[in-house]
Amino acid sequence: MKQVLFSDGRPIRYLIRDALLDFIRQKGYRPGDQLPSEERLQEIFNVSRLSMREALQLLEEERIIVTKHGSGRYVLSLPSNLDIDISNLQSVTELLNSYKISTENKLLRVEAHYPNAEECSLLQLEPDERVLSIERIRYADVTPIIYSIDTIPIKFLPSEWSEEDFKGSLFEYIEKKLGKPLHYSQATIHACRLEDANLPFETKDLIWILLKQLIYTELPEPFIYSRDYHRADRIQFHIRRIRR
Fold this sequence. Notes:
The protein has helices at residues 12-26, 38-45, 49-61, 92-98, 117-123, 170-177; strands at residues 65-68, 72-75, 82-85, 103-113, 131-140, 143-153, 182-192, 208-217, 222-231, 235-238. By secondary structure, the chain is α+β, with helices and mostly antiparallel strands. α1 crosses α3.
């Protein structure tokens, strides 16, 4: 029986990926079980070969399936938590949407201020050039899973900006409203605590994964200094490493 995919505005490869995950769960596949052939999956989901291949590639990158050349594709694991490919530059909103995670985005504060020494160095600013810091929390149901602080030079923003501009996807606002395509980032990652942060939830005994990024436009110019704290008990990162 063919599956019917309903568009929710995302690229088709993500819709097929989600449908494949549902298919794997509904059929009771376990790690080590072989999936139907690519051609058979195309028939089941009534999609093009290219779209199916792109969706299968997403699942391979997420380590959910593995390809054994000459044999086929096999289930590797089913993630119980959010498993993120750290090599893919995307906003928190894009990330959560791609995993169909229902979240609430709470804007804590938007504050204009003069940059500190670190912000001056990273964003290539003079001490008298003001920046805007945006603090937000993403909740999955009632659980806070990501706390974000994004800092942007005010010179890049329109004169009539408002807090409403920053309640949605920051990447979308920058790329679509400001017309500044974001190209790549330089990032560091480490574990930390948030015990001293003034946050509207209990942080005691929680470990967070701090992803610091300096995000560039294609000029290139540093545009955002981003600090995203991810709940370590809910989120993990992975990256494909190649021996050279």
